[in-house]
Amino acid sequence: MLGLYHCESCNKNYAQKSTLARHIKYECSKLPRFGCGLCSYRGYQKTHVVSHLARKHYLQLKPDINENILIFETSKY
Ligand SMILES: [Zn+2]
Ligand SMILES: [Zn+2]
């Protein structure tokens, strides 16, 4: 599904104007905090990376075992 509303800053598309507005206000101005250890994916919430790992890498996280390897925090930006 192609979005109708386009963020000028990061090229993301959104189906609704309100979603785009929320994105610009809460997401786009902030850097993603969490990153995938296996690829260049970045997420704003840890749960985003967790679901990314499950979808793209077919990995289920085991708390304390692979969480620190597969999810890193990009807090040092
Ligand atoms: Zn954006
Ligand atoms: Zn990944």
TrEMBL record:
SUPFAM superfamilies in the record: beta-beta-alpha zinc fingers (SSF57667)
Keywords for the protein's UniProt record, in alphabetical order: Metal-binding, Zinc, Zinc-finger
Occurrences of domain C2H2-type (ranges): 5-32
Zinc-finger keyword on record: yes
UniProt GO MF annotations: zinc ion binding
Top-level division of the source organism's lineage: Eukaryota
InterPro entries per record: Znf_C2H2_sf (IPR036236), Znf_C2H2_type (IPR013087)
Keyword hit for Metal-binding: yes
Protein name, UniProt field: C2H2-type domain-containing protein
Organism: Rhamnusium bicolor
